Amino acid sequence: MKVKVADLEFETLITQLEIQNRIEALGRELSRDYNGKSPLFLGVLNGSFIFMADLLRAVDIPCEVTFTKLASYFGGTTTTRNVRSDIELAVDIRDRHVIVAEDIIDSGNTLAYLVERLKVLKPASIKVCTLLSKPDAIEIQIPELAYTGFEIANEFVVGYGLDYKEQGRNLKEIYRLVGE
Length: 180
Ligand code: 5GP
Ligand code: MG
Ligand code: MG
Prior knowledge:
Helices cover about 20% and strands about 35% of the residues. By secondary structure, the chain is α/β, with parallel strands linked by helices. It has one domain: Rossmann fold (3-Layer(aba) Sandwich). Strands 5-4-3-6-7-8 form a 6-stranded mixed β-sheet, sandwiched between helices. Strands 1-2-10-9 form a 4-stranded antiparallel β-sheet. Helix 1 (about 15-35) crosses helix 2. The longest helix is centred in the first third of the chain and has 18 residues, at about 15-35. The chain is globular and about 45 Å long. Its main location: cytoplasm. It catalyses: IMP + diphosphate = hypoxanthine + 5-phospho-alpha-D-ribose 1-diphosphate; GMP + diphosphate = guanine + 5-phospho-alpha-D-ribose 1-diphosphate.
């Protein structure tokens, strides 16, 4: 399917059913790996809010959830190395098993910044769970990355929480920019 988001045209890359099935599988994996550990899911706003809502409901062990806000893209379709932290953590993560939930890893700069900041707070463990990653775009390897929903090509995507000019987050599928 094709959709217009702001001034650009996008087409379906990953369907709603594919997303659902993959998240169910991630939830089963996390439930097995974190059984007895009561993990703390830490979502990175805004992009991860829909992923987090579905991921959390795919997990069937005791767990908690909180959010932080970081931004590296400011309205466009290319990455910058400027990472900005908008809200401080509301939960003490010391000695907690933290699972960072991200919408997408592009260069890796945003996540590398966050993981370094989190380590200082001495959690029992940190792992990253991302819905999407672009292996060809990565600039910084993230050893904590343990769970990936889908690896995609180096192209700009929207939908399922991800925006273009703050629009398109409500789309149920994941769409790629047409003509890339
Ligand atoms: P990184 O720091 O890894 O380069 O970029 C991470 C952040 O940039 C993501 O959390 C996301 O907010 C944004 N981003 C990266 N690639 C895309 C993309 O293809 N589409 C959208 N909408 N945002 C992206
Ligand atoms: Mg993000
Ligand atoms: Mg964005």
